[in-house]
Amino acid sequence: MAQSVADKFLEDSKSKSFDLRHRQIINTNIDKYNLAFERGISKFQDLENSKKKANLIKWKTIENLDRYLLDFEANFTRNGGQVIWANDAEEARQEIAKIMEMHQAKSVVKSKSMATEEIELNHFLEKKNIETIESDLGEFIIQLLDQKPYHFVTPAMHLSLEDIAKLFHERFETPLEATAEELTMKAREILREKYAAADIGITGANFLVADSGSIAITENEGNARLTTAFPKVHIAVVGIEKVIPSMNDLDLFWPLLASHGTGQNLTVYNSLISGPRKAAEADGPEEMYVILLDNGRSNVLEQKDQRQGLYCIRCGACLNVCPIYQNIGGHTYETTYQGPIGSLISPHLNGMKEFKHLSYASSLCGKCTEVCPVGIDIQKMLLLNRRDAVQENLSPKMEKKAWGMFTWAIQKRRIIDFFGGKTKNFFIRNFFKKAWGEQRELPKLADKSFSQQYKERKKNS
Ligand code: SF4
């Protein structure tokens, strides 16, 4: 019988959690992030107020999503761009293929985009013999390894400098002891030619600005700018939840994203692109398309209680503070969006039946909610997902039986007190050890129950 997604998740979690090298790399990288993050948020005069404001703007936008998307479409079209609506991954891929055919495109340069990861665009284009190259350094490394991003902000977070130097040595014959700067220069040298030669540039976008009909791209390497400036055609694949009402809102969202994503005041490059090149402009594409991707987002929107999940600006802060993510790593989730926010939205994007287990992969410590710059109550939403899974009758039979027995027994004090601690511990050790996990010590129950001890003490006092 094929292994279920949930069983694979448990198996991979178990092995990753005890992979000490993995833990060391992640701890080092997250320590660096933490330092930068503290510096980044210290620049806000009143961070809590900024978060509240961001939450309010996102609430207003998501509650009126249809209106803002139509505004974006009207304004972007007026600027000379074309908007394509894609219900799912297949529709998005086919629309991209049509544009490729129309332009007889043979090569694509891409900048980092989780929406294109979601629709598995690279493999689709490869099958069509279209050369596709990732231009973001982290994504470029991941592409060389044929892996998926480990983290949606820092895709190669699980690799050390030595790992990358070894990879470049094998692929491009750079010295094994090459420094980070030397490796970056090598990647730049390879990529430069690709920008100039590519037929089409593909990007995502961090925001869709409704009132100006623009896309906003945030980055640190300048690669997205080159991706959108050189090729004659630019396609942006963007999730529908990325819309914000006005250009003025960037004043709030850009610093929130930069400080929570990488600890910067602002990222090095912030581009606003409002359609194809105009007659008097020196660079930019001749044609520009924005693919508005639903791909399950309407399912999140349908959840009145959990639609807050769509407020996410993908800063990655909740991943970095999550004790589960730090232990099991990003690949274990087997979803485009990992960590707490991934656990919240993936069951709605990819199916509650297959992905409900992710909502249980949380200690509910609340750190994710505490750091979220748009104030998503993540741990509460995870509990609501669990509620939905139970209400939809998706819990395994054994679990239902176990809870049924527990509920029956716990309501009968005489039965609970009839067995002593030794019997109870024997029962737990023999029937629950597997579910508890081999690496954890089972708690030992006292010889007498709390109720018995309480009564005794009261009697003796
Ligand atoms: S849920 Fe909040 S903290 Fe997590 S990635 Fe989204 S915006 Fe950032």
TrEMBL record:
The keyword Metal-binding applies. It comes from the Bacteria. Keywords: 4Fe-4S, Electron transport, Iron, Iron-sulfur, Metal-binding, Repeat, Transport. The keyword Transport applies. PANTHER family: LACTATE UTILIZATION PROTEIN B. This is Iron-sulfur cluster-binding protein. GO terms for molecular function: 4 iron, 4 sulfur cluster binding; metal ion binding.
